[in-house]
Fold:
Amino acid sequence: MNKTVIEKITHIVGEKYIKNSTAQLLAYSYDATANFQRLPDLVISPGNAEEIAEVIKVCNEYRISIIPRGSGTNLAAGTVPYDGGVVILFNRMDQILNFDKENLTITVQPGIISENLCTFVEAHGLFYPPDPSSMRISTIGGNVSENSGGLRGLKYGVTKDYVKGLQVVLPNGDILETGGKLAKDVAGYDLTSLFVGAEGTLGVVTAITLKLIPLPQYKMTSIAYFESLEDAARTVSSIIANKIIPVTLEFLDKKTISAVEQYMKIGLSTDVEAMLLLEQDGEMHQVEQDVKEMVRIAEENGALFTQIAKDAQEAEQIKTARRVALSALAKLKPTVILEDATVPRSELAKMVMRINDISEKYNVNIATFGHAGDGNLHPTCLTDLRDEEEIHRVEAAFSEIFEAALSLGGTITGEHGVGEMKAPYLEWKIGPIGINVMKNIKQTFDPNHIMNPGKVFAKETKKRVVVHGGN
Structure:
């Protein structure tokens, strides 16, 4: 990046909001993904969409990469610079622009922290359900770019189900407005949905209109312990088969339970093979009925012990235990690689067993937890990047885990996105025709390929080796 470009960008956003020292660039050279790091050329904090549009015009003219970045919690190297470029931060764009209780919507800037948004609307008796585990630090803009899920996804869906409209700066500097507050609108292509989950490869999201719903009146939380993974998985399937859709239905295996208990010391049983976290919300009578029925189903399917949280504080403690699973595991080894594979709920037990078999096959330490209710598992490898031989085995293990998920009718990612880490596997899921369609869309929006290059589309697809015997 030459001096002229830096001067032009500095003139747009102000010298105060430019970071370009080596230490500052290093701070934005990586995200939460292990083994990915590259320096950007410049880090900026624009104050509004108009400044971003002017910066993008300069970058488009000089063919300089743009990397939109929230809080850097990305787990697929989606916010790691690929070939230098300009990292755009949204720490100055974190405001609520419009809160419309009459139309049950809220419009926010992308830099607002997810938990802060939830807290604000709940204080007004409303509810924004998406709740990624990183919600205390992740931004809404990042959630939109990755189409993030969360613990409440089984009942309420994911980010895309609540995005009603966007303001997006396109790669040529034009500012596009999509959607709005309407309950119904089918005028033309659904451009809003196109940008949700696009991982910053089509434009920069600068404002987001979200749907809100009434805050549930009541909720109850319980846990169930099992001596086998199969019993826990069978319980999940049985709960859904009994037409109960809980707000939360989470799974932790033995390794994860032990790590969380060591981390939090809240009295979790560590001599079991699996634990389910179950929660329901809604009208009090129905919630109590559903939770009692879920506990009964768990016991019928071999639960060793069940417990209903006695109050809101204990319930929150249990849910926090699930949310800190990654942090707890991260304390055990120098490097933790958390992955994201999803299968149909009916295949959950098979997938967990396949993960365990693959872990043994490659002699790597993998703990598994995740959103059992929607089949979204997070196999998490405890390793050390300094051990190159082991890292090769880890990579081979995860390739086989992705193949196992696909062979069971699943996908390579349920909520973390493709980014750079999973780009070599995307064709396994959507095929060469799907890749071609996506590339054509990218080319139309971003002909100079300045928007978050190196993400989603891989230079080379991994060779897929179909492993039989798991269907």
